Amino acid sequence: MKMRKGVIMQAKLKYIVGIVSFAAFIASCSSTKNLKEGESLYVKGNVIVDSDTISKENKEKIATHLEAALMPKPNKRLAGVPFKLYFNNMAGDSVGKNIIKKFLKKIGEKPVLLSDVNREYNENLLRNRLENFGFFNAEVKSDTLVENKKATVNYTAKPNFIYRIRSVQFDIDSTTQLGKDIRSSSDKSLLQVGKNYSLDVILNERDRIDNDLKNKGYYYFSPDYILVQVDSSHRNNKVDMYVTVKKETPAQARVPSKINKIYVYPNYTETSTGYQRSTRNAELYDSSYYFIDRQHLYRKPVIANHIFFHPGDVYNRNAHNQTISHLVNLNSWKFVKNNFVDSKEVPNALDVYYYLTPLPKKSLRVELLGKMASVYNGTEVNVNWTLRNAFKGAEQLSFNVFGGYETQTGGSADLNSSYYRYGMEATLTFPRILSPFGRISPSRRFIPKTYVKGRYEFLNRRKAYTLNSIALDYGYIWQESEEKQHDLALMEITYVQPKGISENYQKQMDTIPALRHAIEPQFTIGPNYNFTFQNTMKQHLKNTFYFKGNLDLSGNILGLIKGADFNKGKTFKLFDAYFSQYIKISGDGRHYLKLSENSQLASRVSLGLSYSYGNSRSLPYLKQYYVGGPNSIRAFGARAIGPGTVAPEKLSNGLFYADQTGDIKLELNTEYRAKLAGFVHWAAFIDAGNVWLQRDDVNKPGGKFSKNFLNELAVGGGAGLRFDFTFLIIRTDMSIPFRIPYLPKGERWVFKDIDFGSSKWRKDNLMFNLAIGYPF
């Protein structure tokens, strides 16, 4: 059973006490109790960089790099505890047929002893690593510290002077085509005069030359054919570098290759004898591509459009990789394999074979999602049926049927969460831009997509009301670069119609008029555009960013045609619902500052603005903003803040109504994240924000946006743990409110009220969130 991202759980303190007690028990175990006389447990290899000329920050980086090279590795630890060693010790030396002891031995780890450490080997290894950095005269010494049978080996590394590059010469015959091509990119060399000598830079320079040559047709060239000779005989700690091509480089690797014939097998099944090159029944398309597809399961123009080679082209690595990337991302083939074979007809030419093994034409996937919390619980099932290559052009048609329920089991908030719902969604995706203006391709590097979506959902909040909703979308998704993506819905239509309003909910609406907004008929029609920028995948950068902007328009042309103006009482309906007329702009910007290899500062600013006019006084309920919850302001429940200084509405049964929404939003978050040990990380955070209304509302005094908006921010903070299993991140956050905006002025900061010893205060203020993934 999977837990949906964002699911939260109110935890009781006794569970936390239990975890802490268990950790204390593990920590009390002895890691050395099974050692023999004279043995010591190797717990750490420590490197100290002894230098007056290297900065403290660089010494720490060098020490970290050197420590990672030390052998052997100590026993694995979690929060400082060698847990696998404890399992091994619990099993004892004599296992016999005891199943439990065998299991403990299997998951455990034998002790790493001081006798396993070869100090001389490690000293030579560290000297070698320092030489790779340019410290040719480095010295390394070591000593051992043993205390209570636990041994630490300290290595003192004295780098001495670093060697720098004095000159770089490309010693290559410029009369040959290979020599000319290598020299033509010498101005982009990574070997720069004045820079430190570095073996890694030399290896990267060989790869750079090879990549440049691959894009000039040298298919058979290899980085190993490049030789960088270093002369360090100078007395002033300088080196001269000579870049040359090895004499033993094959003749075939010294000349560019051209593309001859291109063969495509779009319905290929690999045989036991490997990939076949039979070209029987090949059909020539566009004078360029031979297709072997006797059943004509795929349209040739679609596949040809994603092959970036033509006969007569010089081989190019970028075209090679781009073709493979496109064919894979068409999501029609399980395996995409290509072979380049020497042509028997043309010298220095290659025949290209593309072997495409299809995915199953149809597939069925069933997902069961569980939601558990002390406030509510429930389940949901999704059944997804997919038809690939629907019209022989790599199109994908999918139908998703879903249903589920949720029931409220406690808490002081009336979340209206007891419901059941069901519905269906159909999506048709084309791997190209469909346009009446002809063929449009925003970027040849990435595959654009056209999508058509339709969705129906029936929601029954059994004690309140039922809703029928229909949504239709038509639009495009395309990627401008690795960092930039666009999603333009040319037309997005949403229609919501309520039915079956209960007598009890009707009475609540009479007490709290704001409840009417949730069940108003809604009709939105217009374009919707999203732009996303992110460079967070570039882990070598100290500062990385993520930004998502949205422009959402509805009913603007329709309102102008109708002459709608709610101020004059001129409002109009479509399908028994007043159509919404608004302009909505949203932005979510995030900054990640890398403080060290194991820590960072993550910050987010989320802003939402809207302007409703003509046929609408405010945003429709489904489009309004809200804050609070496990991925927002974590010290407050979802939808429990605002608008402005408006307090959650009290209901007659002692509950409060937590569904506070608005037309304007501001949210600020910052979080310090650091690694504790292994896969366990921790974080400390502060969140702030609120929502506001565009116009005054007599039922929500204090909810309108004003120049005093900063004095109306909710603020909370706390700390938590993150368990990073690479494929899954489980997050726990404990937080409390610092500032409550709906309290009287002068009393909104609540630091003075914090009382962890009070059970009532903890119940009202301590918020524990259990969620999947990071909040931002």
UniProtKB/TrEMBL annotation:
The keyword Membrane applies. It is found in: Membrane. Keywords: Cell outer membrane, Membrane, Signal, Transmembrane. GO terms for cellular component: outer membrane. The keyword Methyltransferase does not apply. InterPro entries: Bac_surfAg_D15 (IPR000184), D15-like (IPR039910). Pfam families: Omp85. Residues 379-740 form the Bacterial surface antigen (D15) domain. This is BamA/TamA family outer membrane protein. It comes from Sphingobacterium paramultivorum.
